[in-house]
Amino acid sequence: MHKNAHTQAIRLRRALLQASSLLLLSILATGLLGQFSAWSISHADNENNRLITQYIVMVDQARSAQAIFKTQVQEWKNTLIRGSNITDRETFIAAFTKSEADTEAKFSELVRTTTELNLQSRLAEITAAQAEHQALGIKYRQALYEDRGGTFNPAAIDAAVRGMDRHLDVRINILALGLRTDESALIAKLATSSADRYATLSRTLWVLMGVSLLLVATLVFKMLRDHG
Question: Strand locations in 8-140, DSSP E?
Fold first, then answer.
């Protein structure tokens, strides 16, 4: 009888050890999954914020290009309206050239950003607008320096390029609006993706906890049944 009691005690200790080991493994697995979930969500949020920031920068670059181009056009008008004196004219031409370079720089920034994001359709729009801007600069200078018998004729110069800036201004505006639409669509897409990720990880965690508790409960029940 003593031997039988000793055998039961050994079995009980073994069963308790199994239950304890299973419980510890369950806690460890749940903890690891929880850590992974936290890392996964944090990593996804950081990546989403990076993408959103790039889209915001892209919209700002387009709007900056449009604003600087308007300044460029104004400097051109200043050249024609206030440039009767050669010294003043050269000053306005220099200001026009600087604004032109600044607009070109914004287009180049926009090309780099869209290339990084692999937005091929938008990239095509941007490079087309950039090419139009470059061609417009050539036409401005052709009109400005065309030989008119040594006289500065603002009316004739203006007639040669009148209205050419409007198409590019509209084009840049449409581009900026399109980029803003892309940004809004991205934010909505990422929000849905984040919600799905959280729901999946949450379900997985609850399933793991439920299975772990079920296994431990089954083992304890078996132990109590065998040693009750």
Answer: none
Residue ranges per structural domain of the chain: 2-227
Query: Among residues 97, 165, 101, 161, which one has the least CA distance to residue 132?
Result: 165
Class of the CATH-defined domain 2-227: mainly alpha
As a whole number of angstroms, the longest Cα–Cα distance in the chain is 130
For the segment 114-129, what is each residue's pLDDT rounded down to a tens digit?
998 888 889 999 999 9
| Residue 1 predicted with pLDDT over 60 | no
The answer to whether 92 and 83 are in contact (CB under 8 A) is: yes
Give the DSSP per-residue string, 143-160.
HHHS-STT---HHHHHHH
φ and ψ at residue 152, rounded to 5 degrees:
-95, 110
CB atoms within 10 A of CB 58: 26
* Distance in angstroms (rounded) separating the CA atoms of residues 35 and 189: 25
- Helices 120-145 & 164-227, crossing angle to 10 degrees? 160
* pTM of the complete model: 0.73
